[in-house]
Hints:
With 235 residues, chain A is α+β, with helices and mostly antiparallel strands. The first copy, chain A, has helices spanning 15-25, 38-47, 71-81, 89-113, 126-154, 162-177, 179-185, 190-200, 203-209, and strands at 3-6, 29-31, 60-63, 66-69.
Amino acid sequence: MRYELYYWPSIQGRGEFVRLALEDAGAPYVDVARRPPGMKAMLRFLEGDALKTPPFAPPFLRAGGLLIAQTANILLYLGPRLRLAPKSEAGRLWVHQLQLTIADWLVEVHDVHHPIGSGLYYEDQKPESRRRAADFRKNRLPKFLGYFEEALKRKASGKITYAHLSLFQVVEGLRYAFPGTMRKLERRYPRVIELHERVASRPRLAAYLASKRRIPFNRQGIFRHYPELDAGNGP
Amino acid sequence: MRYELYYWPSIQGRGEFVRLALEDAGAPYVDVARRPPGMKAMLRFLEGDALKTPPFAPPFLRAGGLLIAQTANILLYLGPRLRLAPKSEAGRLWVHQLQLTIADWLVEVHDVHHPIGSGLYYEDQKPESRRRAADFRKNRLPKFLGYFEEALKRKASGKITYAHLSLFQVVEGLRYAFPGTMRKLERRYPRVIELHERVASRPRLAAYLASKRRIPFNRQGIFRHYPELDAGNGP
């Protein structure tokens, strides 16, 4: 099966969580919108009326006759097929639960720089972003990191799942967006950091991260580095 | 199987999406935290260290030996068991995709009154809330309503799923929180409104909605009515 991934071509964004799973598994896929007529194909799915099951937004995945949207839903589908999810129903529900918690976390990361409206520029919501960033750094970031530290402690297992790959990506993104904050916080979450290193050193993933297929972080994605929103610069 | 639902006892919140599915199916369940020692039991799961698979937050469901968190994940599990999800994998992925889009929508509804921090009072973020509410009413609310209108148009089917029950609940909540806005908008989304009525008239659900088990909307939940955030009062 050759998968087709549809996502905005210039950012990692939510599409990256799907890319990491496909790349780690060595699964054949096309990153459709990153090739010349691909954007048009993606917009046709988004704006046309041919699909019985339209996506609300990218990413979405074409897998044979299926068109699946919502990042966590795509990973729910891919997990067992890419051997990145447990076999048991209990195990799959647990991994999906972690993925949905990561999805919640991502919304909060995004809203640090877009607390008023996703359609407005950051520059049009800077004072609000500073306030939200202070709350995020002080309360929400430690809460999420602490939760995953505890989850890794309770259920130590050598087997990597798609949720572990996603947690790796969140740490990568946080280090890019909030380097000062992460320098101060990381030592409190040794299991999260160890997991990040373990994922980064997986051969296929390491090759992907060093390749041109990996889009660099930038100021259009979910994780954005604005010095004024990082530690020591907020209110 | 007698299910145990754990959720904050004084609000509808996210727990309500699970309650609606259980009630509509006539499934036996205990709303644990609404009975005397129940809050203690819920907090023991949240704060203790006995669970291998800890929840990040309520709601969570105990089903035999499983403890499942994240609203959409609980419904993914319950759907087929309560006959509120299609049998095919494609059908289940589609219903879950809709549920995850509703989950995204709910975050935005909540953040209208909490754009800066979920741990702060509304009163401490009123100017920001007004700005966010204006964007929500003008851009986000029509986008979500339009999406579900279109989804109902494309895949007309008599069979009610848990995602339909959830969409009913969102309409209920929006009418409570934004009565002025909804009065103006509703006529544009006839299929959403028809679905809302169809769900409300299901016998078991109608009985539940008229019972004391249904907690009234209030200003502690996700949907809150603040006149200054409704249509005609924003900036």
